[in-house]
Fold this sequence. Notes:
Elements: E1 10-15, E2 21-27, E3 32-36, H1 47-55, E4 59-63, H2 80-94, E5 99-104, H3 106-117, E6 122-128, H4 147-159, H5 161-172, H6 184-196, H7 199-211, H8 215-220, E7 225-230, H9 242-245, E8 252-257, H10 264-267, H11 269-281
Parallel strand pairs: 3-4, 3-5, 5-6, 6-7, 7-8
Antiparallel strand pairs: 1-2, 2-4
Helix pairs in contact: 2-3, 4-5, 4-7, 5-6
InterPro entries: AB_hydrolase, AB_hydrolase_1, AB_hydrolase_fold
Domain AB hydrolase-1: 32-257
Family: Belongs to the AB hydrolase superfamily. Bacterial non-heme haloperoxidase / perhydrolase family.
Amino acid sequence: MSQKADSSTGSxxxxxxxGTQIFYKDWGSxxxxxxxxxxxxxxxxxxxxxxxxxxxxxxxxxxxxxxxxRSTQTSKGHDMDTYADxxxxxxxxxxxxxxxxxxxxxxxxxxARYVARHPKGxxxxxxxxxxxxxxxxxxxxxDGVPQDVVDSxxxxxxxxxxxxxxxxxxxxYGYNRPGAQVDEGxxxxxxxxxxxxxxxxxxxxVRVLSETEFYDDLAAIQIxxxxxxxxxxxxxxxxxxxxxxxxxxxxxxxxxxxxxxxxMPTTHADQINADLLAFIREAS
Length: 284
């Protein structure tokens, strides 16, 4: 049953059509902001943003993608259409309208598909360090991530993800750059979130995030979209993702950040939050 847009429930589950249970957090009141997390994380990755926007008077919602976090560890339904439909089921259950949808990394692809597929009730969208228009190297995207790199991510996830998840936090947050101050708590929190989900879901999600193309989605979106991307992103390279995707949007805007890493919503939360707030409060 849907709830009024100004009445949050704290947290809960929505059971979608195939029986999968999708976990969500729902805090505060006011205009809703719906956060979509990246692979292989959970709604917890948005803590810095949710606490900030809650204080600013917004209603903040975030869900765990199927197979991730606290949602059902299902082996089925791993495709971008289903991911977007799961998020829509949460939005419908909570009765969200006039919402801003914000996605990071794979979550940015989910937002692009969501807005193209379910535009009603969406006011604005933001793609942060996101995979669109396409992650891997293709004929249309010759400088994308090579297939052998994608294969190594799938192999690491399927066969030895405990160590692989520790290792990938280093480039994810730019901790391999000269002068970087490594935050072990941030690394451990990434690992904790990753290990909450299922290996099969995460392995399948690598396929989805690498193979899905979003050219048509981006072209179909009619609302204002802010593309935010670190220029030193070692996971979703800026020249083939953020620098391209905003040009395919009818009402797109790019804000790039010299030297910032893929995980900049965590490493540079104050800066990212301020820029998000300015975009959300700006008259359309």
